[in-house]
Amino acid sequence: MSRNIICDVDSPSPDIWYGTLVVSNIRYDDDTSVTIQKLLGLKFKSPKATGKITCDVSLTSYEATKSQVYPSKPSEDVNDVTAQVHFTEPHTFVHDDHLTFGIVGDLTTDLDTFKNSFKLYAESLPSGTVIVKVATTPDPALTDAQQVVYLERDGTEDTILASAPGTTESYTVEAYKYDVKAADLATSDETTVASALASPSQVEVQVGGNTDIGVTYGVVQKYSALDVSIGALSQPITTERLHVKVVDDNNATWFDDFLSPNGTKKLRRLPVSGSVDISAQITLNDVKYSAAQNVQLSQSLIRVSINQNDIKAENVDTTGFVVLPVEIQTDATGSDVSIPIRFASTSQDVIYKQQISIASNSAKFDVPVAPGDYIVKADGFIIDSTVYGVQAPATLTVNSDGSTVLQLTTQKGASLAVRGFPDILSYGGLTDLYDLSGSDFVAADAYAAFKYAGNDGAGDSDRYLEDDPATRKTIQLAEAAASELKHPVLPIMISYTVNLSQGDDFTHLQNKDALMYSFGNLILSMSIANSTATQSVPVGYIVNPDFLGECQKGPTGEMIKPEYDMVVREPLQDALKYRKVDAEIPDSVTDTLKGYVVAVNWLIRTVAPKATFGWQTNLWGVGKSDWIYKKDDPTGPAEMAKETADYVKTLGVYSGDYRPDFLAIDRYEADDFTQRAYGPGYCYGPYEWDRFYDFCGALSLELQVPVAPWQIPASRIPARTEIVNDLETDHWGSGGTYIFGDPAIASDYHNINPQILEITPAEITTHPSVEDIFASAPPFDLSYPSYGSFPLRGIFTVLLGGGSTTGIVKSIGKTGEWTQSKVHDYMDNPVPLSY
Q1: Is-contact 244 253, C-beta < 8 A?
Q2: Judging by beta carbons within 10 Å of its beta carbon (0-12, 13-18, 19+), is residue 51 exposed, middle or buried?
Q3: I want to staple 226 with a disulfide (CB 3.0 to 4.6 A). Which of 232, 267, 365, 502 is the partner?
Q4: Is 695 domain-assigned?
């Protein structure tokens, strides 16, 4: 006789904006205990969510877990939610174990429906079998082509691959009602394409049942295909993008954009006759570099490469051009240090660039400059590990009368020498503690492993912990990896003493007992590190994620002021007494919000003086995150960073006697092409990632504090020719591709897999599709890594991944192994922090 798993569901303090659904007392319907070997699955309904749905797992005993939540696109203001909780070892649920689902949505309407909707499953979610029968090939050229069938569920596509025409394949899929679509059957170069029809167009997969889908073929079309590429170029245009145009013999433009060296533009499904003219050009420092070719089309793939030998250089007529003086205000010293200056015409076709020595307060460009409007870029520089930023106008109009002067000012920033970290830009990642040998971190040659401290990962604010296995095991893993790598691997614990990650700020700030317990549990974690770690810097801490951002934007839209009253000294004293720490609390720890910040800094410096630590903030501390998407807003990241820095300064986070070592910064850790990210509006292309890291750099400069981008999604963009099976489980994204580069994507968004381009992100992104995110971005090139600029942005390390987000560990998503190899390859030629 089968037994159903039942549970109790509560919703403490639901409101129209945010609330939680808390699952506890998980048991069988005969009241016997439930033991999970690997997977607990849940299905339930939630209100239409305007933000991420989170899942926090709190167990009375410690087992490593990871959770994944997949909400459907809402229908009639209701989400169908699927959640999975994975266990590393068997776990028997007891009454007080609970799962807390954070819902950004209105739980006050029809709350009983949401509470009563929970269904729980041991080891697997209910599923059925789909049998896909594909017709025989409609053309000999398509014999080796692969047929893809999409099962679409509320806008989220699951992909089923039939290996070839003329086959019948069976697939196990989650029981659900799906729309069915079939992709065109095409050769890899799309010179032969057959339309495909899946029947029926809708199926409902029943638990344990079989569902048939057939694929038939219609008209076969023949096409030409064209690959236009830029080969390796020589100085001075080695790294310059060329403006490429492809125009047919009817004067219709097929392509008009920029391509980088070693970049390729793929044009598909073209006519099989006629010709095209291909041109490429750029003007740099008054020299025009150009090439032109004519190509006859045919029913085949035609490859055209523009190489250095094809490039013709000629001086442009500089009549009417003017001298452009440059004035520099700086307190930096170093005669051999230069500022790289680059400014490009608004069309990007005309570029001037030059190195200006900081030893000269007044200089000029070596060549005359064409009057007009330019976009200015002036990079900073590093002297003895200290970053100097350069303030320059975002745009510059060069007047025809020669009156324009380019004004530059340098600003001293952070020292990148952070204890516990090497003198190179390093990488670390989240550990799920599945493998305590640290083999993933060894394979990546990583320098840090982070994990949330305690049992519930949020401070365990309801009790003093007797032990903290998460801290012990993270230290064990880090030291095992360090032993193999022959260099330190820093264990970093994420510690909450006030958890504002789920809102309800004032309640948490006023909870004296919770603060006492969480202070005590932080002391426990530090004591374990002091007594067990053997590395010279035993442990690192990132404290109170989301705290600064939440306080800055405030629960009512107004920041919480530093003098806000809260009890700090008493719970801190009680925690010190309980943990038998003999230390006198300084007078600077007052019963205010600012006093609480001092208390955290003092506590870490007192109990773990050898530790390294930093606070964390977010790009949405200004009360919004949509600024990241705004075009024609070059100063946006700097403005948002200054607002954030000003608030951090008022709290004295990085001043006084107990100053932290660094600042961690995140946006939201989900992989961009999962619904958990693009649903609430975190779906970045190269433009948005540029602005995020510009925000990091500006914030570092304002605070003079080194920064660590944290919980950065390190997944990659799949190329057009790759197989994308499931957007949610494969964990595709853009964060890793932006950092490490991928020539398969290069500078052409058409190289991105069509399933990715078709994603519809949240309205906050201002884009109707991922395709539009990339198509409307300024010219980009993902062929090469972007990490070379990180030190100039005050970045000394990057910490990758999250609980269900691609990082270094391979157990999360399809792209984790790719990221791991990229980090390892990077270490063959790492970026120094002092030059």
Answers
A1: no
A2: middle
A3: 267
A4: yes
pLDDT in tens, 610-644: 999 999 999 999 988 999 999 878 789 999 999 99
Q: Give the predicted TM-score (pTM) of the model.
A: 0.78
Q: DSSP assignment, residue 695?
A: H
Question: Which of 95, 122, 149 lies at the terminal end of a domain, its last residue?
Answer: 122
d(CA 427, CA 446): 6
In a domain, residue 805? The reply is no
Same structural domain, 539 and 438: yes
Q: What are phi and psi of 579, to 5 degrees?
A: -90, 5
For residue 146, the enclosing domain spans 127-222
Per the structure block, which two tokens stand in for 329?
A: 């205000």
612 and 519 belong to one structural domain = yes
Rounded to whole angstroms, the Cα distance separating 785 from 741 reads 4
Over its C-alpha atoms, the chain yields an Rg (Å, rounded) of: 29
Q: Kindly give the pairing relationship between strand 490-495 and strand 797-800.
A: unpaired
Q: Name the one residue in this structure whose structure tokens are 């090469």.
A: 784
Dihedral sign from CA coordinates of 789, 791, 792, 795 = positive
* Same domain, yes or no: 465 and 340: no
pLDDT digit string (tens) for 458-472?
A: 899 999 999 999 999
Instruction: Answer yes or no: is 492 within a domain.
Output: yes
Q: What is the CATH number of the domain that holds 76?
A: 2.60.40
668 closest CA partner among 658, 679, 657: 679
DSSP 657: T
Question: Is 296 in the same domain as 358?
Answer: no
For residue 641, which of 577, 595, 705 has the smallest C-alpha distance? 705
Whether 258 and 351 share a structural domain: no
Contacts of 609 (CB under 8 A, 6+ apart): none
Q: How does pLDDT run across 28-69, given as a tens digit for each residue? A: 999 999 999 989 999 999 987 666 687 888 887 767 677 777
